[in-house]
């Protein structure tokens, strides 16, 4: 099983810059194209502006990680490079990785850094969110 949930607040930089809204529109258009290429029947994804802020989200579930895991990380890295003020989280549960089959992986994007952390909120998945089989 491969399950993931990701949200990103897309910001051009951590500070304010001239033409920020124009640059944010360019980045959001780019991200929207990534989402359209990514979307299939196992995934939900979207991008929306609220109060001048741009938000993107992705969630899904599949029997196997296949190419989804690489695409998810690549999208995060592309946004990281184009909009270093962006921040967000990616939670992944991949039970096909033996050493992580009972844990969520948590990827954090903040200030141009994309890092992996151990999850303490939902892991261990058994017994926190599921019963043992």
What report would you give on this structure?
The protein has a six-stranded antiparallel sheet with strand order 2-3-1-4-5-6, with helices on one face. Strand 2 and strand 3 (53-62) form a beta hairpin. The mean pLDDT is 85. Helix 1 packs antiparallel against helix 2 (68-82). The protein is an alpha+beta fold. The chain is 29% helix and 36% strand. It is built from three helices and six strands.
Q: How does the SSE layout of this entry go?
A:
Blueprint: E1 2-10, H1 20-38, E2 43-50, E3 53-62, H2 68-82, E4 87-94, E5 104-110, E6 113-118, H3 125-128
Antiparallel strand pairs: 1-3, 1-4, 2-3, 4-5, 5-6
Beta percentage is: 35-45%
Principal-axis shape:
elongated
Give the helix/strand class: alpha+beta
SS element count, helices: 3
Please tell me how large the radius of gyration is: 16 Å
Q: Distance between termini? A: 15 Å
Q: H/E order of the elements? A: EHEEHEEEH
What is the makeup of the main sheet?
A: 6 strands, antiparallel
Q: List unreliable stretches of 5+ residues.
A: none
**Strand runs, count:** 6
Major sheet strand order? 2-3-1-4-5-6
Q: What oligomeric state best describes the polypeptide chains here? A: single chain
Provide the residue-averaged pLDDT: 85
